[in-house]
Amino acid sequence: MNREIPDHWIDRLFAKMGTMYGAAFAAMWRDIDLADIKTTWKQGLGEAHITDEGLRRGVAALFYTKRPPNLPEFIELCARPAMHRQNTLALTNEANRTQPAEARAQLAKVREAAESLLRDPNGRNHGIAWAQRLRDRAARGEHVTSHQLTCAKAAIEQWQTTHGMMRHNREPGSDDE
Predict the structure, then answer these.
(1) What are the structural domain ranges in the chain?
(2) Among 74, 62, 71, which residue's Cα sits nearest to residue 21?
(3) What is d(CA 2, CA 43) in angstroms, rounded to the nearest whole number?
(4) In degrees, to the nearest 5, what angle opens at C-alpha 74 toward C-alphas 72 and 75?
(5) What is the number of other CB atoms lying within 10 angstroms of the CB of residue 37?
(6) What are φ and ψ of residue 171, in 5° steps?
(7) Helix 71-78 to helix 34-47 angle, to the nearest 10 degrees?
(8) Distance of CA 55 to the CA centre of its chain
(9) Contact at 8 Å (CB) between 68 and 21?
(10) Is it the case that residue 16 has pLDDT exceeding 80?
(11) Which of 122, 170, 124, 130 is closest to 154 using CA atoms?
C-alpha cells in the first residue's frame, strides 16, 4: 500500500527547489509537462513510503546539494542517515559464547596484568614517569621551567584522580560559599 502524499507537499517542494536552484531547476524539466512530473514525484515518494519527517529531512538536505536532484536522488536525501538505521540481528553460535563467570575471570587477569605493567618496584607509575622525573629534577634544584613543572604536577594529579589514589585535604564542598 502506497502512502498518499498530499498535492500541497509536492507543490511546496517544487516551489522550494525552484527558488533554490533557479534556472538549473527549470532547465531540468524544460521539455516535460510539469503536471506529469509532479504526478510522478507524488507516486514515487508514496511508493518509497516517505514520511512527513523524511520529506522535511529531504528539503533540509537540499540546502547542501549543489544541483537540483532527480526523484531517486531526492528519495535518498529523505532517507535516514546510515547511523540511524536499525541494524539487523547477527546470527551467533551460542556454543562459542563465553560464560559470565569465565569472562569475569579473564577480565580480572587482564586488569592484574595491566596494573603490573603500570607500576614499577618503587611504586611509581610508568604512565606518568616523565612527570615524576620532572618533579624530582625540580626538587633537586635542576633547571625546569615553570610551564614544565605545572604540566607535570597537573599530569600527576590527573593520574591520581582517575586511578583512585587522590588524597583529599579537605571535605568535598568545603570551598562552597
Answers:
(1) 7-81, 121-169
(2) 62
(3) 8
(4) 65
(5) 15
(6) -80, 140
(7) 40
(8) 24
(9) yes
(10) yes
(11) 130
Q: Roughly how many angstroms between the first and final C-alpha of the chain, as a whole number?
A: 66
| 10/100 Cα distance (integer angstroms) | 55
State pTM to two decimals: 0.46
* Rounded Cα–Cα distance for residues 109 and 100 (Å): 14
Q: What is the pLDDT of residues 57-97, one digit of tens each?
A: 999 999 998 999 999 999 999 887 755 555 555 566 666 77
What's at 1, amino acid-wise? M
The C-alpha angle with vertex 49 and arms to 59 and 1, in degrees rounded to 5, equals: 150
Residues in the chain: 177
Name the 3-class secondary structure at 144.
coil
CA–CA separation, 157 vs 162, rounded Å? 9
